[in-house]
Amino acid sequence: MAVFKVEDYRNIALVGHGGAGKTTLAEACLFKAGVTKRQGSIDEKSSCLDFTDEEKEKGHSMDSSLCSLPHGGKHFNILDTPGSTDFIGLANSGVAGVETAVVVISATDGIEINTRKRFKRASEYGLARIIVINKIDDGEANLEELVSTIQESFGQECVPINLPASKGTAVVDCLTNSSGEADFGDVGGIHEAVLEAIVGADDELMEKYLGGGASEDEVLATAPKAVAAGALIPIMFTSASTGAGISEFLDAIIRLAPGPLAGKVRVLVDGETKTPIVPNAEDDFVGLAFKCATDPKSHIRYSFVRVLTGRLTSDQQIKTEQHPKGMRPGHVLRVSGDQHQDIEAGVAGDIIALAKLDVHIGETLFINKGGTIKMPFVPEPMFSLAIEPKTRGTEDKIGAILKQYADEDPCFKIERNATTHESVISGNGDLHLRTLLARMAKHHKLEVITHPPKVPYKETITTSAMNVGYTHKKQSGGSGQFGRVIINLLPAERGEGYEFVDKIFGGAIDQSYRPSVDKGIRAQMVLGVLAGYPVVDFKVELIDGKTHPVDSKDIAFQIAGRGAFKEAFMKAKPVLLEPVVHIDVTAPSENVGDLQGDLASRRGRPQGQEMLPGGMATLTAQIPLSEVADYHSRLSSITGGRGSYSLEFSHYEQVPGNVQQQIIADSKKTED
Ligand code: GDP
């Protein structure tokens, strides 16, 4: 299989709201490029990209999938990313492999919640952005108004480079054309606007152009630089179903989307040394793993790697931070849908897959140079469920499968909570977790029972308790036990944890037993005193005590330490702390009043509100985690399923008195 020059690769990610037509667009590109004999279809369950049984069944993407195609002498790698907020981890980490995010917007639905989110993330990560308005075959859509809304939302840098024509069955080019008949808009005027946006990225060229000294070809040759810099965000039109605008889309990618040399510069960070990477096939190999996936049929695990520079062949040793001695890939593969093909080498600018290697998302691979490369932001998963195996004895198998899922999805976690003793899985939302559990049930016949997890409260003190003494004495019959300790208990700053200070002058407690006091306190600290939650942010000073020449021993001082700590804790005005999260809700603007009222009734504190073009609004608030366990269904019922939300951990804060009493009472009940 051919290996291309660095400048001949075009790596793009299709991003946007679910249902905009991303997968259909990728299928249409494969068909147009002659890779497939007929266009795969989501609706007929013959998609090359949504190829897993689950995706065919549900009719939408759950993971990002990669396809590649030749067009106009270039090699395209197209990453189709999932649109739903629930799979945001996969959508966001996938864009680490590309230069350009193609934001797909449905002509009929316009800008949706995830359109905005993906656009913002792509900008933050420094990717070039291109907007595709798809479904232009739908006669109902007001495309002219949609272009204005896009410009209002994403800036005046968004300029059409073609326009729909013949009632959405064709497109007219405005990049090189200054005349023609479009369904709306003035082709000549838009052509001028495109050229102006391009020169906007380069002061010298701008002066030359305005002075009449720059030819159109000269201006167009710099277009990928302008797109990479965000001075031009091209808008183009397609119908992925009918094929209108598809070859024009592929041509425009070649002309406008930056190749690996003109696109986002990746920086290799090794301690204090920061080295910007200039892709060069002759250099030492450096790659970035941005996606891992296990083939559901063969169970082979593939790591998808963007070759940032150099060249990798199958017999070389690649190193990662975890494998400094190196691993031999065996095969270097090109993946397209569910097809894998051996290639001679992975060269700078390409995307390759490596099979059966212990390489994880976000890891840098190298032959000589070490270091790390920044990955795109993925939110901390805040939606959790506690799980228990349905069948006894399957714990270990379930743990292993869920660990594999966590390895492939940066927003999925499984943890054993040391405080609540529950196995807790966390993800972006209800659908996210249910999808993964359904996958486990289907492929491995392993099922779990779920319930809302206990909230990880913490205990702390608000004042000091000085000179608190405790004696542990067991001196009747057998070998005796004796230990007396006197401590001061003091509050510490939030986040400081626990500190033990030995302040004994002289030998009131034998030197060898002082660590026993500390050990006893640590044991109690994990168990909690008030309601069974771990104690944080305090300092204990051991100030005095008493030793018995025969009966004093380690265990006696551990018990005395624990006893003194418990007593002092209850005297130091103890309180519970609860996790507070930052919630971000997007919903139709007519629901804002109801949503605000609902958040307020859940102890939410509003932080801001913004009206968005297109009749939507976003609300932000801080809210206790315990109050949002069922938010999914509440939001859905208020907005008729049109709202979405995300949670991010903010901080721990004191639980109000009445709520605290309830939590303590509940903890007493479960103890009984
Ligand atoms: P994705 O979630 O963004 O990947 O969207 P899909 O590619 O799965 O498409 C969602 C639905 O829109 C499917 O039923 C497609 O057949 C349909 N669709 C996609 N592109 C077009 C188009 O250009 N025109 C029309 N009319 N429907 C389309």
Gross geometry: elongated
Largest sheet: 7 strands, mixed
Helix/strand-derived class?
Answer: alpha+beta
Helix content: 25-40%
Query: In angstroms, what is the radius of gyration?
Result: 30 Å
Indicate the mean pLDDT.
90
State the fourth-level CATH superfamily of the largest domain. P-loop containing nucleotide triphosphate hydrolases
End-to-end Cα distance, whole Å, is 69 Å
Bound chemical compounds = guanosine-5'-diphosphate
Subunit arrangement of the protein: single chain
- The CATH architecture term of the largest domain is 3-Layer(aba) Sandwich
Q: What is the third-level CATH name, the topology of the largest domain?
A: Rossmann fold
What is the percentage of strand-forming residues?
Answer: 25-35%
Number of H/I helices: 17
Low-confidence segments:
none
Number of self-contained structural domains: 5
Question: What spatial order of strands do you see in the largest sheet?
Answer: 2-3-1-4-5-9-6
Number of strands: 32
Q: Which CATH class of the largest domain?
A: Alpha Beta
